[in-house]
Amino acid sequence: MKTQNNMPNGEFQKILALGLQNLSIQATLLENQIAVLNQEMRTLERDDEIEKLDTELYNVRALYTRYNEYVDPDMSIELEDFFNDENN
């Protein structure tokens, strides 16, 4: 198994960018689900579902914060360029 030490920093930063983008999308989807449930009439079942979604959203945001600490602020990664990169 390879480790981060076997990977050029640019590749590691690309993986971080992809992961952070994925976590952002997950958070947005969860926020949308919570908003829809909040608009519906309140029931214990819905309250339970909202609580579960809130917990999941909290976990996604915690992962985002954790992984964001590894991002090199001096390195700009454009995900569109990443998918068009011939070296992938």
Chart the SSEs and their pairings:
Blueprint: H1 9-39, H2 44-68, H3 79-84
Helix pairs in contact: 1-2
Let me know the number of strands: 0
> What form results from the Cα inertia axes?
elongated
Could you spell the SSE succession in H and E letters? HHH
Average pLDDT score: 85
| Beta-strand percent range | under 5%
Q: Poorly predicted ranges (pLDDT <50, ≥5 residues)?
A: none
Helices and strands: which structural class? mainly alpha
Rg calculated over all Cα atoms: 17 Å
Count of runs of 4 or more consecutive helical residues: 3
Give the N-terminus to C-terminus distance in angstroms.
19 Å
Biggest beta sheet attributes: none
Q: Give helix % range.
A: over 70%
Describe the structure in your own words.
This protein is mainly alpha-helical. Helices cover 70% and strands 0% of the residues. The chain has three helices and no strands. It has helices spanning 9-39, 44-68, 79-84. α1 runs antiparallel to α2 (44-68). The longest helix has 31 residues, at 9-39. The two termini are 19 Å apart.
Summarize the structure.
This protein has helices at 9-39, 44-68, 79-84. It has 3 helices and no strands. Helix 1 (9-39) packs antiparallel against helix 2 (44-68).
Key descriptive features of the protein:
single chain, 88 residues, mainly alpha, elongated
